[in-house]
Write a structure and sequence with these properties.
The protein is mostly beta strands. It has one domain. 1% of the residues lie in helices and 43% in strands. Strand 13 and strand 14 form a beta hairpin.
C-alpha cells in the first residue's frame, strides 16, 4: 500500500460480507406540497357545521429496494443455472434512493352543538385516501410490503399506503348534570369519546420463496379476494390468490395493499369532579373506562397464502380497562405540587371466534 495507491486491488476482499447497504450519493431533494380548504357555518342556535378538504403530495421520498436482485428472465439464465446479478461478488444490496412519490386527499364533515350550558356534543367523519410506492424504508408498519417485488419495476409497488384509513368517525360529548341542591352530587362532569374506523390495508404474500433470488413473493390475483362475512378463522379468500409456480420466470400479478384488515371501534367514558378545598388547594377525582363494550378489535391476519393458517387472525388489541385517580394541587412556597394515586385493571376480551358462526363472522366494523 502506498499513498498513490491507498486501496490496492490485490488487497480487496468481499468474502464474509453478510449484509450490504448503500444509498445514492446524489440524492434528489425531498419536498411536500399541501393544500386545504375549510368552510364553517352556524346552523340554528348553538350548532356549527364545518366542511373541510385537505391534501398533500410528496415528491422524491426515500424508498428501499434490492439493487443486486438477480435477473430472473429465462433468456438471462446462465449455463450453471444461476441468474446474473449486477454485482456478482455480493448478495442482497439494500439500496435507498429518493425516488418515491405519494398523494393524499381527504374530506371531512364536523358537527358541533351545545344543547345547553351543561351539554356539548361533537362528531366528525373523514373519508381519505393515501397512495404511495413505499411507506417505510426500514421495514413494514404492519403487514405491508417493505421492499419491491421487482427491483426493475419500482412503479409496480404503487398502491395504498400502509397507514391508509378510508373511513373514520370520531364522536365526543361533555355533560355536567345540573344537580345543584346536593353538595355531593353537584359539579360532576361526565365525558365520553367513541372512535370507529375501517381497517388498514395489507398485502397477500407467498412465504416459501426467496426475494433475493428474484422469485415471485406475491401471488397472482384472479378475483377480489374479499369475503362477504369475514371472520377470525378466514379473513380473505386464499383461492383468489393462486401461487406462482417456481420456474415460471415471472412475478405475481397481485398488487401491494390490495385488501383491508379489520376495523376498529371503541367507546371510552369518564367521570370526574374537582373539589375546592381552599383558595390555593384543590382535589380532583377521575374515573375512566376504555373500550366500555369490551369489543374484540382484531389485528391484521396472517398474510401468507401458502402456509397453514394463512388468512386467519389470532391476536386482538384494545381490551377493556378502567382506572381511577385522585390528584391534589396546592400552593407550597408559591409553587404547585401534584400528588396522584391511580389504579388500573384490565379484563381480557372474549376468546376470538374460530368457527364459522354468525358471531365470529359478522361482528366486525369493516
Amino acid at each position: 500500500m502506498t499513498v498513490s495507491n491507498a486501496f490496492p486491488e490485490a488487497r480487496r476482499r468481499v468474502g464474509g460480507i453478510t449484509s450490504t447497504n448503500g444509498q445514492d450519493v446524489n440524492q434528489a431533494s425531498q419536498y411536500i406540497q399541501s393544500w386545504s380548504l375549510t368552510t364553517e357555518r352556524e346552523i340554528g342556535k348553538g350548532s356549527v357545521l364545518e366542511v373541510a378538504f385537505a391534501g398533500s403530495k410528496g415528491t422524491n421520498l426515500p424508498r428501499r429496494f434490492d439493487l443486486n436482485q438477480p435477473d430472473r428472465r429465462l433468456e438471462a439464465r446462465q449455463a450453471d443455472g444461476t441468474f446474473p446479478r449486477l454485482f456478482p461478488q455480493f448478495q442482497t444490496i439494500n439500496y435507498i434512493i429518493n425516488g418515491s412519490n405519494s398523494i393524499y386527499n381527504s374530506g371531512s364533515v364536523t358537527v358541533k352543538r351545545r344543547f345547553s350550558k351543561k351539554l356539548f356534543v361533537r362528531a366528525a367523519y373523514t373519508y381519505a385516501k393515501s397512495i404511495d410506492e413505499s411507506s417505510n424504508t426500514g421495514g413494514t408498519i404492519a403487514a405491508g410490503f417493505p421492499s419491491a417485488q421487482d427491483s426493475r419495476n419500482l412503479h409496480g409497488e404503487r398502491g395504498r399506503s400502509d397507514f391508509d384509513i378510508g373511513h373514520s368517525l370520531v364522536g365526543a360529548f361533555i355533560w355536567e348534570p345540573g344537580i345543584a341542591k346536593n353538595i355531593v352530587l353537584r359539579k360532576w362532569q361526565l365525558a365520553g369519546t367513541t372512535r370507529a374506523y375501517t381497517g388498514a390495508p395489507f398485502t397477500p404474500k407467498m412465504a416459501n420463496v426467496s426475494l433475493d433470488l428474484g422469485e415471485a413473493v406475491r401471488p397472482d390475483r384472479i378475483a377480489s379476494g374479499r369475503l362477504a362475512a369475514p371472520g377470525a378463522d378466514e379473513w380473505f379468500d386464499r383461492a383468489a390468490f393462486p401461487l406462482v409456480a417456481r420456474g415460471s420466470f415471472r412475478y405475481g400479478s397481485s398488487g401491494r395493499n390490495v385488501l383491508d384488515g379489520p376495523g376498529f371501534f371503541t367507546f371510552d367514558i369518564s367521570l370526574s369532579r374537582r373539589f375546592t378545598i381552599t383558595e390555593r388547594t384543590a382535589m380532583q377525582f377521575r374515573w375512566e373506562t376504555f373500550n366500555l363494550s369490551n369489543r374484540a378489535n382484531f389485528n391484521l391476519p396472517l398474510t401468507q397464502v401458502d402456509v397453514r393458517g394463512g388468512g386467519t387472525i389470532n391476536t386482538a388489541r384494545g381490551f377493556k380497562s378502567w382506572g381511577c385517580g385522585l390528584s391534589f394541587k396546592g400552593g407550597i412556597c408559591g409553587r404547585k405540587r401534584t400528588l396522584s394515586l391511580s389504579n388500573t385493571t384490565d379484563r381480557l376480551a372474549p376468546p376470538l371466534p374460530y368457527s364459522n358462526t354468525s358471531e365470529g363472522k359478522g361482528s366486525h366494523f369493516r
